[in-house]
Amino acid sequence: MNTKTKIIQSIKIWIVIYPSITLFYALFGSYLSAVPLYLRTLILTLILVPWMIFVGLPLVHLLLKKISANEKP
Question: Which domain covers residue 65, as residue numbers?
Answer without folding.
Answer: 3-71
